[in-house]
From TrEMBL:
SMART domains: FN3
Residue ranges annotated for the SLH domain, each copy included: 51-111, 112-175
Tagged with keyword Cell cycle: no
PROSITE patterns on file: FN3 (PS50853), SLH (PS51272)
Sequence ranges assigned to domain Fibronectin type-III in this UniProt record: 226-315
PANTHER family, sorted: OUTER MEMBRANE PROTEIN ALPHA-RELATED (PTHR43308)
InterPro entries in UniProt: Cell_Envelope_Struct_Comp, FN3_dom, FN3_sf, Ig-like_fold, SLH_dom
The organism's taxonomic lineage, starting at the top: Bacteria, Bacillati, Bacillota, Clostridia, Eubacteriales
UniProt entry tagged with the keyword Chloroplast: no
Name of the protein: S-layer homology domain-containing protein
This protein's UniProt keywords: Repeat
Length: 353
């Protein structure tokens, strides 16, 4: 469905009167006695019989006065008994049908079966709606209804004017838009616009455009499989290897961040599942963790492991600097032995006697 932008009541008033003005042009030369009420609610009121071109609710509206005066002078429209024109009132489909039929000088179709299920023979606009449908000026909906009380949209107004003009209207600087919904985010589409006339002829050289819809914001973080873990291997005095199974993401895992004792020290690509750590101290405990990262910057929970590096290999025995041992406090059953400490390349862990 073609949709035109709505710019408030004042814009609608302009479109409404422009609609009436064009009808007046087509009605030039028709019987001047033609008149029509402008509100369904007032259809029961006696119409103003004399042609009236001054309306007290249009005194300062320079935009509307020329159109209204022209049509009133031609006898196409008339005001209300209270001296008003009521330009802000909506124009319904039934009222539009009435104006079209009167402007074209078509006879009302008072007999026959109703064309539309919601316009029975007792409806006030039955004859004019039947006549408008027969003349090809008014079409219904797929469900067999006419929706006579619905307001005429800007798009419908243009279609009505085109039909009453015989397909010769020309429009300049008209913004036409169609809101296409149900597309997939982050997807490219090719659109082509073709024009159709009242006879059903379709153009074949309409403009085309390529459009890529925007992607939805990604707020979903990567997740680890159940039982996922960070596993150390190849532990040495100053290094080790960290291993993990890949995480999954609604879009794509783009990388993994590696942490040592809570501080990030490196990162790898999303297709790498191991990392060799070097430069560690022997016989030292470290806490390592890994987080998965996606393209939107979402981070997974961390997998953590604590590792103690291997002790340094020691094949060198302790040595004595002086090699002196002394005795004291000698009794019949005891003695105190004293010696200077030995030295070792790593550490002296004990003495054997």
């Amino acid at each position: 469905m073609v949709r035109f932008p709505t710019r408030g009541e004042k814009q609608y008033k302009f479109v409404f009167c422009a609609f009436l003005l064009v009808l007046g042009v087509f009605a030039f030369g028709l019987k001047p006695a033609i008149a029509v009420e402008t509100s369904i609610q007032q259809m029961g009121e006696p119409a103003v019989q004399a042609v009236k071109t001054d309306f007290r609710d249009l005194d300062n509206d320079k935009q509307l006065l020329p159109s209204v005066h022209y049509l009133a002078a031609k006898g196409i429209i008339n005001g209300f008994p209270d001296g008003t024109f009521r330009p802000a009132d909506s124009l319904t489909r039934a009222e539009a049908a009435k104006i079209l039929v009167l402007t074209k000088g078509l006879p009302e179709q008072s007999g026959g079966q109703p064309v539309f299920s919601d316009v029975p023979t007792g409806h006030w606009a039955f004859g004019t709606i039947q006549a408008a449908e027969k003349a090809g000026l008014l079409y219904g909906y797929e469900d067999g209804t006419s929706k006579p009380e619905e307001p005429v949209t800007r798009a419908e107004a243009i279609a009505l004017l085109l039909r009453i003009s015989g397909g010769t209207l020309t429009y300049k600087n008209v913004d036409i838009a169609d809101n296409v919904t149900g597309l997939t985010p982050g997807t490219s589409y090719s659109f082509t616009i073709e024009a159709r006339d009242a006879a059903g002829n379709l153009s074949s050289d309409g403009p085309a455009i390529e459009v890529t819809t925007t992607s939805l914001p990604d707020t979903q973080a990567p997740v680890w499989a159940i039982g996922g873990a960070l596993l150390p291997s190849n532990i040495t005095e100053n290094g080790l290897t960290l291993n993990w199974f890949g995480a999954t993401d609604n879009a794509l895992v783009t990388g993994y961040e590696l942490y040592k004792d809570g501080v990030q020290f490196d990162s790898v690509s999303g297709s790498t599942y191991s990392y060799t750590v070097a430069g560690l101290a022997p016989d030292t405990s470290y806490e390592f963790s890994v987080k998965a990262l996606d393209g939107a910057g979402n981070r997974s929970s961390e997998l953590t492991t604590t590792v103690t590096t291997a002790k340094t290999s020691d094949n060198q025995a302790p040595t004595w600097a002086d090699g002196v041992i002394t005795s004291s406090n000698i009794t019949s059953n005891s003695v105190t032995l004293t010696w200077s400490g030995a030295a070792d390349n790593v550490a002296v862990t004990g003495y054997e006697l």
